[in-house]
Amino acid sequence: MSTPRKRRAGELADALARAVDAGILDGAQARAVLDAEHARGAASGGGRRVLVTEALGYLGGLLALSGAVMLATQYWREVPVAGRLGLLAAVAAVTWLVGIRIGDGSAPALIRLRGAVWLASSAAVAALAEQVARDVAHVGEPAVWLSVGAAVAGHAGLLWRLLDRPVQHLTCLAGLLMAAGGAAGLAGGEGAVGLAVAAVGAVWVAVGWMAVLPPPVPALAGGGVAVLAGVGITAGDWPDAAPVLGLATATVFVVVGTGTNRTALTVVGLAGGFGYLPWTVGHFFAGSLGVPLAILLCGIALLAVTLAVLRRPSGGVSAR
């Protein structure tokens, strides 16, 4: 028995033959339609295979991760240090090899799979560096963060250099933030750690602004989040200054992002303001009903004004 696809192809060929006999199409046109239909069918079949491959990759990664978590929670400390290091190194290597087999011209589903397995590879490298720092070098907590961050930044940075993708971009940034925080922790308290994290984030925003680090949107968003998070970390040493500085930073992001059409920076600033504004009000005006009520009413008024502006005709002014 013929398959439904073959029957449809036969019916199409018969219809085209009748169109040629009736003079509606010539032979070349009919052959072009058949060729296009065959190519579409082949592409759809290949697309399904790619999606199956992606699903199998995610399933394999999920099973491997679940097994690793179960092993870590139940038997990890019973495994010798050499065995732990070997297992983590093997996971990092295998996930790296799976990703490297997927070229940059592959289907989008496989590109997503590559980003995921390389992220898993970076996680395995982080765990490996943590084991070396704790169980082999026996260093303190700040040095552990420094070691893990440096390893992750180097590993993800290399993958990012090989094939430019946002996942590896942000993973490299996360590694740099951990390394900066760990290095600052060796010299000072939470204030120094927060300033180091914020400084790295500010540099990332700057280079993203200048389009030095591709793509610029993750650079602006990731760097902006790092700046706001770093300011929040300083609250341990400077509880009065941290919320005000965070609110000011979020406001600058919103103003600059809106004025220069950097949507990523605007979104980060709005999210930061949503967190820092209640924190600032609660810190300095705890127990006062008037201030949060005034903020609520101002917010509603601004939303009403925004709605009115959006509903107003543009008046012939072109949007940028």
Helices, strands, pairings?
Blueprint: H1 4-21, H2 27-74, H3 81-100, H4 108-136, H5 141-162, H6 166-187, H7 190-209, H8 216-233, H9 241-259, H10 263-284, H11 290-311
How would you describe the overall organization of this protein?
- The chain has 11 helices and no strands.
- By secondary structure, it is mainly α.
- It starts with a helix and ends in a 9-residue tail after the last helix.
- The C terminus is likely disordered.
Features:
single chain; 320 residues; mainly alpha; 11 helices; 81% helix; 0% strand; flat; disordered C terminus
What would a concise description of this structure say?
The chain has helices spanning 4-21, 27-74, 81-100, 108-136, 141-162, 166-187, 190-209, 216-233, 241-259, 263-284, 290-311. With 320 residues, the protein is mainly α.
Main beta sheet, described?
A: none
What is the radius of gyration? Answer: 28 Å
The helix content is over 70%
Beta-strand percentage range = under 5%
What is the tally of beta strands? 0
